[in-house]
Specification:
It is a multi-pass membrane protein. With 310 residues, this protein is mainly α. 76% of the residues lie in helices and 3% in strands.
Length: 310
């Protein structure tokens, strides 16, 4: 009884985020770089969404999922980067317990939804390339909408489950999170109780999802590439380019998830570097890969810009 009362009296109400560096000059450089990246993320992904909505030729399952991916990347980066930019000018870098939990919830919501969406996009490319005659029957709009609903529902359920596990733990100090945003592994480390079972559940949840989806995606693209080798057509190069783009995004994004969530909650110096790729670099890859490497998108962008100029 006395121990419970002591915990209640000393509950943590705020956390201190260590950020990327304590050096003021480094922080100013980080602020400038992150701000540029964030602006580019917003411009690039918003432009993709607008272009897909505007151009009726892009009203296909592939670009429907791509617009969802761009929307997720906008939200995903917005969960962490603005707070990080503000914290570069603050010495304490405080975040309230509720804000920390909220950030963690939306971080996992968008991250898990993106993992599921990338898996669905791989399936879409598999059907398009390996079963082209059945493509419009298999990937009709009803199926696409149902898949989108399933993807978002899966991300929501995952995030609720993970956040519930973390929020129930007692936090009575220390209160320093060794990163520039709140995440499950860092929060679990601060709990003043034994967290071995929780860590196993986190690895079973996030780690298993990441590893299974990564294996499924790699196998899917391997099958696609084998199928493309057997095809002699004008669209072969275009299909190869599309698959290479998808595989690049998948490897960088899921690589982070496997690295962070498939091991116990221990901090190592590489965590922050990987987190930067996860929250800043990967969301910027979609506008670069899907516009500069995609002729359909470039043509649609040119049409959109041409119409605006007129």
């Amino acid at each position: 009884m006395e121990e419970a009362l002591l915990l209640n009296q000393s509950l943590v109400t705020h956390f201190h985020l260590k950020g990327l560096s304590v050096n003021q000059k480094v922080q100013i450089s980080v602020f400038a770089i992150f701000l540029i990246f964030y602006v580019l993320i917003l411009i690039g992904n918003i432009l993709i969404v607008i272009t897909i909505i505007y151009d009726h030729q892009l009203h296909t399952p592939m670009y429907f999922f791509l617009s969802n991916l761009s929307f997720i990347d906008i939200c995903h980066s917005t969960v962490t980067i603005p707070k990080m930019l503000v914290d570069t000018w603050s010495e304490k870098k405080l975040i309230s317990f509720d804000a920390c939990v909220t950030q963690m919830f939306f971080l996992h919501l968008f991250a898990c939804t993106e993992i599921f969406l990338l898996t669905v996009m791989a399936y879409d490319r598999y059907v398009a390339i390996c079963k082209p005659l059945q493509y419009m029957t298999v990937m009709n709009w009803k199926v696409c909408v149902l898949l989108a609903v399933a993807v978002w529902s899966g991300g929501t359920i995952h995030s609720i489950a993970l956040t519930s596990l973390t929020i129930k733990l007692p936090y009575c100090g220390p209160d320093e999170i060794d990163n520039f945003f709140c995440d499950v592994p860092q929060m679990i480390k601060l709990a003043c109780t034994d967290t071995h079972i929780i860590e196993i559940l986190v690895i079973s949840n996030s780690g298993l999802i990441s590893v299974v989806c990564f294996v499924v995606l790699v196998v899917s693209y391997a099958v696609i590439l084998v199928s493309l080798r057997q095809q002699i057509s004008e669209g072969r190069q275009k299909a190869l380019s599309t698959c290479a783009a998808h595989l690049t995004v998948v490897t960088l994004f899921l690589g982070h998830c496997v690295f962070i969530y498939s091991r116990p909650s221990t901090s190592i110096p590489e965590d922050k570097v990987v987190s930067v790729f996860f929250t800043v670099v990967t969301p910027l890859l979609n506008p670069i890969i899907y516009t500069l490497r995609n002729e359909d998108m470039k043509n649609a962008l040119n049409k959109l810009m041409g119409k605006k100029e007129r």
